[in-house]
Structure to design on (862 residues):
């Protein structure tokens, strides 16, 4: 059986999981790859920190050049986070003639066109199953299994940290800050969870899925995005009272006017698949014109699930499947004409708004007038008492269908009303 | 772009769906296959029946030889049902140098070793995504995406007809016969639904998954199998009263004593993923040692979902991915040493039993004694009145963990007790 070498760059949590699989499950991997795979180099700047896998002596170094200059290295598994250093490592690996496997969604969302063009020019491949949905095979499903379909929509829970926080708030009635602290204690949230809770992470993943499923070239920063960091226990309770759960949902929907993309905390009806997603799980609901609705549900992060996806990509790359798929998909290529993306302000939706107001007799009138001026009809409106103050109240509004532009303008103006006390909380409401 | 010809053999419901995709979605398929695909032959004995797709003149014939003798035909899509004619067509297609795509699970479950050996000898491939789970990419997920994992268990709802019947009975409190008639009217059940409702169809699919995920060579007829045809509204109500739904579950579980395989109506706890599977949907829950629990949920039958999987296989075959996967998996090969299969009588489980009895004072004693003699402890037991007769009663027993052998022997003996009026209804109870 042919022998090949693999270099692992980035020896953090996922890197340790990948190294463990490569060191301990050689026969299993060789069966899939039809090659004997030697983990020949592990490269990281940090040579000191103890990881939960023991490497053979001499394997770990900070010398990337040595790994890239070894002509027997066929694949570089690139698990360095962030975008700048990761981009440079990826370009150098491709320039050295290596195929690359990565789990870095931020890198692909920021530099996909440059990296994929470079790989195509050099006849190399990039595999990235682990970049979206952790261990869930969402890239393979869309890129291979659903190729006979026109994808109509994707609705996905792509950030396990947010889902853990939301489902904990729901189950225990806890407030946002308390659950974030709990999530950090359990290792489900980073010390700085900003990129998770503000929706950036889910939006980067959505940008990748939009490219894969629709050929849509979009800068993730242009996708309308709301995080979960403004939500309070009151919002979860309101949702439950109306038969909804709140989930951070990333949506891509192909309408007649183009592809509608957004990431937002979303009211999903109890009993629907996305409402049932608990804890740190992820789920991706895809609708194709032939296959109908398809749901994939599993662990979207964590050492072992992510390593499972990385090693599957490595096996695909070594066995030759990746090259076929990579060339057929032609991702982030200037030659691919993807679907047009609908102007952000035109994306339709129904919305939930919660406002803190000073009680006054014409508050409802004034707010209703602003909404009406922005072509937004009210489906229901309710005030509830503020337990801490008689002079203040909460107001909850469910709108009928309007647009992102209308609701954004309306909310901006509502927040300027003198009796409105704080920024409005806004969620989308799923169909 | 290279042009290739494809022959479609079997122009029934699924064949019509495949023909429609090939005729109407040429550019989409060419993009995936990187070849222009011409549907050159449609072969069926029945040249008269009107299908819901219109073929170009001259495409449909009953002349299989003409298709197989055309050297430009690369792939035969074999959608003839049953086993005898289908086997002969498949062998002839392989002998003619064609790669084959099929949706026929009965054929693979019965003749997998012969067909796969033949394909390997001739350097051809067989693709069969559509044989299990319809449009759900379960074969690709296990065969490609989870190759870094040791699969620990599969619990699956693989028969949409049974799931439709069970979830209808649950929602409307209807009796079995009424729902079967309704399912036939809606086209969810065949005129003769025996292979569906007696569990044969699900068991054939489980045998294929056992081969794919565990290398287990098993005759599907040797797998312990119970159908749903003995269930009544009373069973559904009992289950609901205890917080369960009943689903026909196919299970493969790798224990220390070997692979445990069975198909049975199963009590699954409300709130678990399988309990949430409604109507004609299928679901496959896979646990891998790295990926953890992964759930795939979608339409397991029907013209378009199944055609989606067939055409995905066709694209994979034309693009070259199938050949790589086919050789790596080495399915149904004498060289592959799969896991041992646990003796059927030893397979552990908890069970639900419902008995119709003539009321008599020592009925519970006698039944309990038989169970005890077969090492089966009772977890709970309840009698309820028979509405039609004062002299009769229903008895419901939940056992603690025992084995298939013990429960089968015990039930056999219980059914011989003079006051037991009918065959016992038996379900498994999920962990």
């Amino acid at each position: 059986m042919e022998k090949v070498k693999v270099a692992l760059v980035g020896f953090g949590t996922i890197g340790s999981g990948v190294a463990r699989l490569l060191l301990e499950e050689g026969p299993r991997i060789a069966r899939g790859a039809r090659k004997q795979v030697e983990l020949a180099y592990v490269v990281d700047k940090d040579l000191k920190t103890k990881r939960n896998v023991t490497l053979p002596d001499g394997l770990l170094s900070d010398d990337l050049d040595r790994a890239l200059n070894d002509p027997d290295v066929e694949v570089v598994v690139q698990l360095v986070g962030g975008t700048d250093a990761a981009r440079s490592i990826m370009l150098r690996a491709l320039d050295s003639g290596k195929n690359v496997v990565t789990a870095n969604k931020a890198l692909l969302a920021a530099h996909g066109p440059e990296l994929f063009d470079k790989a195509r020019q050099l006849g190399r491949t990039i595999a990235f199953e682990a970049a979206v949905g952790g261990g869930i095979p969402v890239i393979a499903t869309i890129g291979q299994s659903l190729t006979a379909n026109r994808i109509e929509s994707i609705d996905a829970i792509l950030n396990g940290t947010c889902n853990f926080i939301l489902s904990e708030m729901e189950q225990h009635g806890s407030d946002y800050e308390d659950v974030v602290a709990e999530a950090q204690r359990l290792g489900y949230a980073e010390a700085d969870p900003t990129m998770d809770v503000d929706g950036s992470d889910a939006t980067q993943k959505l940008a990748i899925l939009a490219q894969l499923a629709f050929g849509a070239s979009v800068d993730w920063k242009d996708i309308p995005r709301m995080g979960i960091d403004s939500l309070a226990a009151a919002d979860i309770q309101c949702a439950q009272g109306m038969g909804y759960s709140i989930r951070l949902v990333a949506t891509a929907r192909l309408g007649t006017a183009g592809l509608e993309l957004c990431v937002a905390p979303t009211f999903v009806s109890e009993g629907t698949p996305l409402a049932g997603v608990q804890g740190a799980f992820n789920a991706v609901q895809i609708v194709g014109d032939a296959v109908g609705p398809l749901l994939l549900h599993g662990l979207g992060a964590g050492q072992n699930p992510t390593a499972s996806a990385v090693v599957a990509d490595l096996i695909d790359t070594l066995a030759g499947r990746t090259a076929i798929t990579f060339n057929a998909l032609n991702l982030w290529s200037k030659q691919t004409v993807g679907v047009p993306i609908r102007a952000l302000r035109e994306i339709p939706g129904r919305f939930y708004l919660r406002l803190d107001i000073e009680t006054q007799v014409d508050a409802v009138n004034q707010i209703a007038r602003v909404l009406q001026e922005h072509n937004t009809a009210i489906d229901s409106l309710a005030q509830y008492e503020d337990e801490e103050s008689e002079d203040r109240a909460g107001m909850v509004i469910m709108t009928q269908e309007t647009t992102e532009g209308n609701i954004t303008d309306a909310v901006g103006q509502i927040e300027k009303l003198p009796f409105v006390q704080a920024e409005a909380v806004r969620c989308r409401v799923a169909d």
Q: What stands out?
A: The longest strand of chain B covers residues 244-255. Chain B touches chain A through 53 residues (CB under 8 Å). The CA atoms of residues 245 and 268 of chain B lie 5 Å apart.
